[in-house]
Structures are given as C-alpha cells and as structure tokens.
Design a protein that fits this description.
Blueprint lengths: L2 H11 L9 E14 L4 E13 L9 E6 H14 L27 H20 L7 H8 L3 H6 L3 H7 L1 H5 L8 H36 L1 H12 L6 H74 L7 H9 L3 H78 L8 H9 L2 H9 L1 H5 L1
Antiparallel strand pairs: 1-2, 2-3
Helix pairs in contact: 1-4, 2-6, 8-10, 9-10, 10-12, 12-14
C-alpha cells in the first residue's frame, strides 16, 4: 500500500488546502531506547506519531510511526533546503537553554522530555498547516511511512542545502530591497527583546518560587506557635495549613508558565529563520551584481578589441610585444563573444530566480505576520490569565488566613475552599472583594 500516494490523492480530490484539515496529528507515546553497535552504544528518545482522519466522511486509516529527534532534524534540513524562501517553523531545542534552576537540563529528564514532546507536536501541526510544506510528499512520508529515511535520501536535498551555505557565511550588507531591509532590522530587534524577556521571566520565576516557598517557614512557625497559645491556637494551626498550601501550590503554576516561555522561545528561533531568508535574498542580489559587473567588463574588453585597443593586463602586454596572428585573434574574439552570451544567459536566469525568491519570501512575510500576531496575542492573554489565577488563589488563601483570627466560627469550610480552588472559592473571594480592597 502506498499511503503517501493515497493521502496526496485525497488532498487533490477533496480540494483540501493543507494536511491539518485532513489528519489529526498527535505524539501519543515516548520511549527511551538504546541501540548498540560494535563500536558504541547510542541512547535516545523515540516518539510515536499517530495520524488519523479528522473527519468520518473521509476515511483515512490510522497510522503509527516511530521517530527520533534526529529524524525531525533531517525533515527540518530538507524543508530548509527545499523552501529557502519560507520561514520554516523551528524544531525545539535538543538540550534546554535559558531555563531556571527548578527545571533540569538533562535531555532524558521526564519533565524535559514531556515538554519537548509537546513542542514537537506543535511543530508537526505548524508544518502540516502551512500551505506549501503541508503538501510536500516528504512530510507525508515522515508522518505515515516506515521507509521515510530512504525516501528522503533519494531527493538529494543535501546538494541544495550546500548551494545555500555561501549565503550564511556572507557578511551582512545593505539590502537594496526595502522590505527585506526592514524585516532584517525587525528580526534583529525582536530577537534581542524576546531573549531578554525569556531571561527576565526566568529571574522572576526564581524569585516567585523562593517567595512562595518561604511561606512554608511561616506555616512551620505558626504550628509551633499554636502549641503555646490557648485562645489563638486553633486559628494559628489553620493559618499554618494555609501557608503550606501557598508554598506547595506555586509549583503547578510555574510549570504551566514554563510552557508559555517555551512558546516565546519558539519565536526567538523564528527570528533567526527570518534573518536567514534575508541573507539568502541578499546573496542572490550580490551574485546578480557580480555577474552584471563581469558582463560589463567583458563588453568593454570586446569594444576595445573591436577598436584595436587593448586593456592594461599581462596578456595584452604580451600581445603588443610579440604580436597576434589572425587565427589567435579570431579565437579570442569568439571566446569573448561566447563568454558574453553565457553571462547574459546566466544573468537572465539569476534575475528570474531573484524576482521569484523575493516575491515568494514577501508573500511568506505577510503570512507570518498574521500568524505571529495571532500567536503572540494568545500567548500574552493566557499568561495574563495565569497570573490572575495565581493572584486570586493567593487572595483567597490570605482571606481565609485572616478569617482564622476573626471572632466567630472558623472551620474546615475555609480549608476545603482553598484546596479545591473551585469557582465557589473564587466567588467567595469575590464576595469579600470590597472588604479586601479597603
């Protein structure tokens, strides 16, 4: 069965714009594996990808394939070579960077593996929803075929990748195209700002963790204190429990916050991709200018030869000194005309390539702007909601701590309300908002 062909036929027959509208893509299982050869032992993490139909009306068999991180890297390099004008979604880091000390940088740490599983799933959904990459046969093979490695080797994508290496080593010069110049400047500034934001969030997470964990000391001292106070003993004991809840509850909040930090880091890597696209466009401009300059030199040389003049060079000096036969002159003229014709053809091809690249990259910039605006707005909204959740939880617990020392019944109702952190608890806090604000 050729699953790849079936998927492509369905996309074409049903006129489906991208793969995400046809398939539901999930990474459902993770395994730590070890492969042993005669020379070394390789330990790695394998991810099981499940693809199934997103609609009952379009039957697509469920398919399960195993992929390791290096397979994702191969797919990424293929996209980068095949679609040099696109802003390719970045794959997550192989090893964690810009993390705070509460999380491990070990690539086999369960928390890190789970975070990377989630980010790899996001990556697959991004490329599968892209209008160009989602229809690529190699993406379909990656998601559905066991012989993906053999299929992608047959594309010889490495040759295309090698052809772009010069553009990445080229120093940054002034772009003649204003849009690419502005995109390069934006990417540079956004990369710096987002990197600083990630660092600032890590520092804030450290301080927030320390602050909330310090409440456990409060709780311990309150419990010690309740043993020597008769009238306040019960209230102190309950208040100590609330303090402990403040200290314990911060872990889940910061773990959720770390997911938002990972999504923010994704856009740091996006900025590097934008700069790479700009460098490639600049390299194409540079190559066109170089060939145009070479053509002008060849034409000037031909014009001077037609007028019987010669340029100042070693070969022309020898010609003036020893003379030149009619046969040699004709051969040189023919070679010069052939060089001019060859350069004219190369320049025409280069212009077409540059115009095509610039137009496709410009369209990609427009698409990316819409995606970025949507993603970052959602990210900032969700981060704000998370901080509000933390503030409400803290407000509720401190309200219950206050009630522990007020005259009247102070029972387990406060404790259960804080434990559940349910809507009822939030309503309780909201009901006391007037008193708290005073």
């Amino acid at each position: 069965m050729s699953t790849k062909s079936e998927i492509e036929e369905i996309l074409e027959k049903e006129q489906i714009s991208n793969l995400c509208k046809l398939l539901v893509i999930n990474i459902i299982q993770v395994e730590k594996r070890t492969s042993t050869t005669s020379t070394f032992q390789d330990t790695y993490t394998a991810y099981q990808i499940e693809t199934k139909s997103s609609s009952k009306e379009i039957p697509v068999p469920v398919q399960l394939v195993w992929r390791r991180y290096s397979d994702f890297e191969v797919l990424q390099h293929y996209f980068d070579a095949q679609y040099a004008f696109l802003i390719i979604p970045p794959i997550p880091e192989k090893r964690a960077t810009s993390i705070w000390r509460h999380f491990s940088a070990d690539k086999f740490d369960p928390n890190f593996i789970e975070r990377r599983r989630h980010l790899l799933e996001i990556y697959l959904r991004r490329v599968s929803s892209h209008p160009a990459m989602s229809r690529d046969p190699m993406l379909i093979a990656f998601l559905r075929d066991d012989d993906f490695a053999e299929q992608i080797r047959e594309t010889n994508y490495e040759k295309k990748a090698d052809s772009w290496l010069k553009s990445l080593t080229m120093p940054f010069l002034h772009h003649s195209n204003q849009e690419f110049r502005e995109m390069r400047q934006y990417a540079d500034r956004a990369h710096t700002i987002l990197s600083n934001l990630v660092k600032a969030r890590s520092q804030l997470a450290e301080r927030t963790l320390a602050l909330f964990k310090a409440h456990a000391h409060y709780g311990r001292e309150y419990c010690q204190w309740c043993g020597i106070e008769k009238e306040l003993g019960e209230g102190l004991q309950k208040a100590g429990h609330y303090m402990d809840m403040l200290a314990v509850g911060i872990d889940a909040i910061l773990e959720e916050e770390e997911q938002y930090a990972d999504e923010l880091k994704e856009y740091i890597f996006y900025m590097a991709t934008i700069k790479r696209v700009c460098q490639r466009q600049q390299w194409l401009e540079h190559e066109l200018e170089r060939r145009t300059s070479s053509l002008a030199g060849k034409r000037k040389e031909k014009s001077m030869r037609d007028e019987g003049k010669s340029s100042f060079s070693l070969s022309s000096f020898k010609t003036r000194l020893f003379g030149e036969s009619e046969q040699e002159r004709a051969a040189k003229d023919a070679q010069l005309s052939a060089d001019i014709a060859s350069l004219e053809d190369a320049i025409a091809i280069q212009k077409e390539e540059l115009n095509s690249f610039s137009q496709q990259a410009t369209d990609e910039f427009d698409r990316f702007r819409q995606q970025k605006q949507h993603d970052l707005a959602d990210l900032l909204i969700n981060y704000s909601i998370l901080q509000l959740k933390l503030a409400k939880k803290s407000c509720l617990l401190w309200t219950n701590i206050r009630d522990c020392f007020e005259p009247g019944p102070t029972g387990a109702s406060h404790l259960s309300g804080a434990n559940g952190q349910s809507q009822g608890g939030a309503d309780q806090s909201a009901g006391k908002s007037e008193e708290l604000s005073s």
